Amino acid sequence: MSLDRPTYALIDCNSFYCSCERLFRPELRTVPVVVLSNNDGCVIARTPEAKAFGIKMGDPYFKIRDSLRANGVVAFSSNYELYGDISTRVQQTIESMVPRVEVYSIDESFADLTGLPEPLGEFARSIQARVKQWTGMPVGIGIGHTKTLAKAAQHASKLYKDRTGGVVDLRADHAVEWLLKRMATQEVWGVGRRISAHLESEGITDAWQLANTNAKTIRQRYGVVLERTVRELTGEPCIELQEAEPDRQAICTSRMFGERVTTIEAMREAVATYMHRATQKLRKQSSLTAVFRLAIRTSPFGDGPKYANSVTCHPPYPTDDVLLLTNAAMEGLAVIWRDGFRYSKAEILLMDLRKRGEFTGDLFAQSQPAKTDELMTVLDRINGKFGKNTLHSARMPVNAAWGMKREMMSRSYTTSINQLMRFQAV
Question: Could you tell me the CA-to-CA distances from 368 to 57, 243, 312, 358 in Å, in that order?
């Protein structure tokens, strides 16, 4: 086997959100656990013990609440601050052992193992052991000559955990054939249910059949994305490792309210809060926005009156100034606001994003003042050191009734000095 052939590993935390909750609650390690979406809406994470009770992803919490309690299933509200911090620790641990890493999601990372000494299976187990020792998180690892095969191998590491110990090396041709023949098309990375249904109508029901379908035919019928997947299943690398996350072409901040908003004062607070979050993301990628859209709406469900509207706002110049953009949003809100409705959601969408120094403005057009740049730098430094909302515009509330409902949220064990884990002397 040539060392020059690309080799990737996908490292995935098992039941990530639930595992984070178990880190500081050892008594829950054998107890079924689920984590809920924003406003405690539906199930978004389950432990194997919870899956055994038939709990499905997306089950509405209000429908299964009594059943969860009757079966001893512990439910948690989403604690994104905790999950984000644990994710960073896991990623830093992986980066300490491999030359190149792509952070694919909050709980998954691709690692480049090309050219590393054999046996790579044992090396993967050392990564697994170090992540467990340093962070407490259990991970499964799949190895393959393409990212798609590494993803398939990682899927097998969960499916056959008792036999593999959570590590699957899928580089041998016979191993690839064995697994792909047992893997449904919708389980292949990048295929999905809708495309899988079309493939099945043509007699392609498993990943091995898909891998042996003519790539050019797939491209004609389904496009270049699925063609790449087919080529990757045959061992031909088509998807490169991305060490740096590409800049976003648009930035959206949107969330359902914990309680309905009925006054313009409360909506102003929500819009200012969402703009604060959006501009943080904007400055993080060193971009400016030349236009944004503000939208508000009531819930499409229920018997109350319905209303939805949006407005496009143009600041005087491309900017990342949260104060300027918030004022512009307040002017836009005054245009679309209507009394007498129970609003369920607001949205800020920053568009026409431009990188600093990569565009030329009109000779006589106004540009963002240097003092504003300095102010935003200070704002981000303070929030980076003391917490993301330590310094913010006065329009943002400290505690809002419309804020996200998280009645079962665990403590922020690693992100708040006031909620550190405490031990009692015996």
Answer: 46, 31, 20, 15
